[in-house]
Amino acid sequence: MNIVFMGTPDFAVSALEELHKHHNVMAVFTQPDKPKNRGKKMQAPPVKECAEKYGIPVYQPLSLKKGEDAEKSLELLKQLAPDCIVVAAYGQILPESILELPKYKCINIHASLLPKYRGAAPIQQAVIDGEKESGVTIMQMGVGLDTGDMISQAVVPLAEDETGGSLFDKLAEEGAALLIRTLPSIVDGTAVYTKQPEESPTPYAAMISKKMGLMDFSKSAVELERLVRGLNPWPSAYTFLNGKTLKVWKCAVERAECGKETPGTIIGVDKSGIHVACGSDTLILKEVQLEGKKRMETDAFLRGYQVTAGTMLKDHKE
Fold first, then answer.
1. 15-33: b (≥16 Cβ within 10 Å) or e
2. Residues 149-158: tens digit of each pLDDT
3. How far is CA 235 from the centre of its chain?
4. Any residues with CB less than 8 A from the CB of 116 and at least 6 apart, and which?
5. pLDDT at 21 over 80
6. Burial degree of 36 (CB within 10 A; 0-12, 13-18, 19+)
7. Using CA of residue 99, residue 102, residue 105, residue 106, what is the dihedral sign?
8. What percent of the chain has pLDDT over 70?
9. Quick check: helix, strand or coil at residue 209?
């Protein structure tokens, strides 16, 4: 099949790799290069790097909906006349003029078991919400946000120590495999298209921001432990210790009756970690990173930084 692929981050690379093995990828559309880190050096999206490795033409329009870039992109797609456009975490909304262009329409790999977790960050949100399973959905794209007809799904169980990063890798691989299994059924007409309900059973999984990582210790230790895992590796959960940002990379829940300590109070420090009072139960910080320092196990951190019981972890710099 002749395919145009649209995707941007690491999540989409697995799908591009598999499509290149099994089909003719005519062109790749991805987001423009962006400045990265302190040096602001321009960095290409992972999908662009993958496409260039295989000599696939790459296009990086600023917009597919309006302006000169949109007009040129539509004209190019008409000339290419792909059988199908495959989309995976592209980062732009496709206009109806593109959605209706290919013979087999536009097919999207979405990293959730739709209709649950429509939106930009379904992977992290599934971990944060304590889901026991997640998965991927191959769907035909419509004008709504992740509301198109579902074609196939694959379930991926979540491990007890699942992080946003580890689930990201699992779903990227599973999504690529499911795509390759599904495309033949779309071509031969055996694919079953299932309409989604108008309302999703879960809130919209909005794009992740750094602010989401701020730990609110009035919440339960269980909720905070899931937040830490869900936002690992980016943007990470964090709090403030003695006026400095303290990132929390790994923690555990210790069941305990609610004491008199104010949530956020360090109630103990030992080899197992830093014990912090929460709205319910206790959170043990096991891997941390103080502002300006390396990430390390808490027992190593405590050998170079004194932390005492009674100290408050706060939600702001002092």
1. bbebbbeebebbbbbbbee
2. 999 999 999 9
3. 11
4. 122, 200, 201, 202
5. yes
6. exposed
7. negative
8. 99
9. coil
